[in-house]
Design a protein that fits this description.
single chain; alpha/beta; 46% helix; Rossmann fold; eight-stranded mixed β-sheet
């Protein structure tokens, strides 16, 4: 099968590499020459475990083709996937302008045979119907197309495996031909097939992400109680998560959620609900608690830090990715600077992305040990395995003051006390 994917971010590029690996011919359309040139040379641009190898393998087979042009790719393809970003506007509404720009370009080059246009971008309910309307205004009577919504559920850091082994494959369409063609394409992929209408597919994505965000904010909400009462948040949430109706996943307190999906999707669902005059207090509370988790952590550090020289470990919004979009580190670093702290940071892969934002305002280290040298306090924002396995005795010797503020609860308080640290964690 020949398919086109428009967009080469975490969703578009991973999806393209996986489908090419199944033997399909896959065109990937981008809009930046510099990035397309890098991709053609086997540089995936983003950090994602296993992606570089998959990209280079399928470039060699010539099943994976990168281009800036729409004409050949669209005319050859049976399925065209839209996988471009839908960031938040200032009011929380999803910005769909890039989606619609892409759709207009698709409409110019549709072939006479049936083409399935499948949207993977996270879009608000009714967007796919608008896509259909836009194309109808551009296309000729001889050209045939059908619309589908195929939301993605991959996690950055495990995106390749999640694409191969998802919990479910959701296909939304009013067309049996579109559904059958998409089922055929996804045949090598595991996961339960969920066939729904367009509106349901669009809402499934938002509902899933908002529920995940709710579990994280609930965990942080309980950590506030634990901090005040002397309860241990790990013990409380472990027992809660053993209830099969609830489950353990995402019941972990910390400095809040971030990334390219949860923050913007929570805001978008609030915006949609407000426009539909639906009570959105539950989701608004999720967002408020997420900010409160960051600010509570910040207040603890300002109150108890032994000095103004801070070392920070972990900058990406989660481990195994270089993505810093909406990462808690961005909020906290800016607040630290506002409060007069001197900062030195380290992250295994996200450091260059942070440097583009903060430039020379902060200092950058090449190892965790360089980061903590002469530091008055260590702040842990992202739970990379590298930090879990560190030589803490060596860390203590290098630090000016043995203060650790752990925003991800990666150590046990009893062990840290034995080592001589002043250890502050979440909800303990």
């Amino acid at each position: 099968m020949t398919i086109t994917i428009i967009g080469h971010g975490y969703v578009g590029l991973v999806t393209a590499c996986v489908f090419a690996d199944f033997g399909n011919k896959v065109w990937v359309i981008g809009h930046t020459k510099e990035k397309i040139d890098k991709l053609k040379k086997g540089n995936p641009i983003i950090y994602e475990p296993g992606l570089k190898e998959l990209l280079q393998k399928n470039l060699k087979t010539k099943r994976l083709l990168f281009t800036l042009q729409y004409d050949h790719a669209i005319k050859e393809s049976e399925i065209v996937f839209i996988a471009v970003g839908t960031p938040s506007k200032e009011n929380g509404e999803a910005d769909l302008s890039t989606v619609y720009d892409v759709v207009r370009n698709i409409a110019r080059f549709l072939k006479k045979d049936l083409t399935v246009i499948a949207c993977k971008s996270t879009v608000t309910v009714g967007t796919n119907l608008k896509i259909e309307t836009i194309i109808k205004k551009h296309e000729n009577k001889k050209e045939k197309f059908v619309i589908a919504s195929v939301p993605e559920f991959l996690r950055e850091g495990t995106a390749v495996n999640d694409t191969l082994n998802p919990d479910r494959v959701v296909i939304g369409s009013e067309s049996k031909k579109a559904i059958n063609l998409l089922l055929k394409l996804h045949q090598p992929i595991n996961g339960k097939r969920v066939i729904v209408n367009l509106a349901s597919a669009e809402l499934i994505k938002y509902a899933s992400n908002c529920l995940l965000a709710t579990k994280i904010s609930f965990a942080n909400f309980i950590s506030f109680y634990c901090q005040k009462t002397g309860a241990n948040v790990d013990q409380v949430l472990e027992a809660v998560g053993l209830d099969k109706r609830i489950g353990k996943n995402f019941l972990f307190p910390g400095v809040g959620y971030g990334g390219s999906c949860l923050p913007k999707d929570v805001r978008a669902l609030i915006n949609i609900g407000d426009r539909l005059k639906i009570n959105t207090n539950l989701i608004k509370a999720v967002e408020e608690i997420n900010l409160e988790a960051k600010n509570n952590f910040l207040k603890t550090i300002i109150k108890y830090a032994a000095g103004k020289n801070l070392a920070i470990w972990g900058l990406s919004f989660k481990p195994e990715t270089d993505d810093i979009r909406e990462a808690p580190s961005l909020h906290l670093i800016q607040k630290f600077l506002d409060n007069g702290f001197t900062i030195k940071v380290y992250d295994p892969v996200a450091q260059n992305n942070i440097k583009r934002i903060f430039k020379e305002m902060i200092n950058y280290a090449q190892t965790p040990y360089q980061t903590v040298k002469n530091a008055d306090a260590l702040v842990i924002i992202c739970e990379w395995n590298e930090f879990k396995e560190i030589d803490l005795k060596k860390v203590k010797k290098l630090m000016s003051k043995p203060y650790i503020f752990d925003g991800r609860n990666i150590y046990q308080p009893e062990e840290m006390e034995k080592l001589g640290f002043k250890y502050f964690s979440i909800g303990k």
